Amino acid sequence: MRTFGILGYPLTHSFSQGYFREKFEKEGIADAEFQLFSYPEIASVRDILATEKNLEGFCITIPHKKSILSFLHETSEVVQDMGACNCVRIKEGKLIGYNTDVVGFEQSFAPLLQPHHQQGLILGTGGAAAAVEYILKKRGIAYKFVSRTKTVDNLTYDELSPEVMEAYTVVVNCTPLGTYPNIEQYPDIPYALLTDRHYLYDLVYNPPLTQFLAKGQQQGAAVKNGHDMLLIQAEENWKIWNR
Q1: What gap in Å lies between CA 162 and CA 39, rounded to an integer?
Q2: Distance from C-alpha of 177 to C-alpha of 183, rounded to nearest angstrom
Q3: What angle do CA 117, 121, 127 make, to 5 degrees?
């Protein structure tokens, strides 16, 4: 039995197992299974590899998209550029790292872009944020990271002034805030400063309408969740695992 899976922690919010099981059933793929590898420590990947002898590939979610890099034998150029991996193919004992988040984000993000969306705020600094940064840079959209801790290169939430919010009309949530079951949580941005010129994109897809998106929608902003991104990157993962 060919084995695939998802590595992350926690995985209570993940749709991946259900998605691939349904895909296998619909497409008559009888020789494949998809498992959840819910581990808080990345070192557990050694145990997974030792136990799952038929494992041919796995996808990676929070919080391991950066820490997985030290376990990879080869990486794609995109992974090298951005320093994050969300898809591993196992071939002849080697772990080869790819990033399909970039494809999923760009294809799902681009349709709602408007000419005035020239600058963006990236909420969070993890592996998912690296994919968003990669695509904003590719599309020529200037950006700033936002996090709770101040560094030379980022803003804090307290620094999101009326001037900043007027200038940065794209806001992408790359934090897990609002993810099921903690659906009442949301990033601490000044929602009252949002307008119909803003575009809010949330990488969270469960629930479909997070508090982050709902609060933006109330201000007239365009909103998009991460569901389409999930579907696109999942299919890209499948292509990689079957090359």
Answers
A1: 41
A2: 8
A3: 120
* 90 Cβ contact list (under 8 Å, min separation 6): 49, 55, 56, 57, 96
Half-sphere exposure of 141 (CA within 13 A, CB side): 29
- CATH fold for domain 2-99: Rossmann fold (3.40.50)
Contact 117, 199 (CB under 8 A): yes
Q: Which fold has domain 103-227?
A: Rossmann fold (3.40.50)
Coil, strand, or helix at residue 105?
A: helix
**78 near 134, Cβ under 8 Å?**
yes
Residues 59-73 as b/e (b if ≥16 CB within 10 A, e otherwise) read bbbbbbbbbbbebbe
Give me the tens of pLDDT residue by residue for the chain, a chain 243 residues long: 999 999 999 887 788 999 999 999 999 999 999 999 999 999 999 999 999 999 999 999 989 999 999 999 999 999 999 999 999 999 999 999 999 999 999 999 999 999 999 999 999 998 889 999 999 999 999 999 999 988 888 999 999 999 999 999 999 999 999 998 999 999 999 999 999 999 999 999 999 999 999 999 999 999 999 999 999 999 999 999 998
Which parts of 85-237 are beta strand (E)?
87-91, 94-98, 119-123, 142-146, 154-155, 170-173, 199-202, 222-224
Q: What residues does each domain of the chain span?
A: 2-99, 103-227
